[in-house]
Amino acid sequence: MDQKIALITGATSGIGKATAITLAKMGYAIIATGRRAERLSALKDELPKNTPYLPLQFDVKKRKEVEKVFNDLPETWLKIEVLVNNAGNAHGLSPIQDGDVDDWDAMMDINVKGLLYVSKAVIPGMVERKSGQILNVGSIAAKEVYPNGNVYCASKHAVDAITKGMRMDLNPYGIKVMAIHPGLVETEFSLVRFKGDSDKAKSVYQGFAPLLAEDIAEVIAFAISRPSHVVMADMVVLATAQGSSTMVHKDLQK
Ligand code: 8X3
Which residues contact 3 (CB under 8 A, 6 or more apart)? Predict the structure, then answer.
């Protein structure tokens, strides 16, 4: 394959989907992964025609599934140059004493262990080729803990720590390791966090201009297109109205 290959996890919606489209427009061949097969096949129609495209349907939190998918990767798709570890979710927003253990498991399994499983499958090839870029999608919650965010914030703090560790360990191989930490981005994120309560989810983004998935995709595109001697190691990107994870300037008259 002539094009460089970018793999984006969680590409069926939000930041992952916008990133897949943006990187395809930059000329990358795209491996898009996600749980929802129909959405993965629909994504093909949103990529520029002639984009080499490999949809991989699996759940990042299922270790055996991840191992199998990567062991069976077609020969032409082995040289993954860019890995965007985007798959992640928030489940619930409750004080620690009321937290649901299934929600905690889901967040640690997807946001932390899922990221590790996929990275474990992709990194050895990058090390062998002494080439590659890894971009982990963290969150403002990787940098700040906020009330009721407890385990979600812990999972994203872990992403921050893993990113720093990866950057050190992969330093001898010239592999770039980066993280982007978005604040409030209007995606399905809050709908998942509030378990389908769309009024609650919508209210998170009301009264100010939140980030859009495309805003984050643009920054990711910028980061991975820097010259070889430049690494955008750590990027916090907020909506202008957001001062911190607990401070958002809202004008509810608007
Ligand atoms: C998503 C942003 O502020 O809900 O990671 O943690 S926030």
Answer: 27, 28, 29, 52
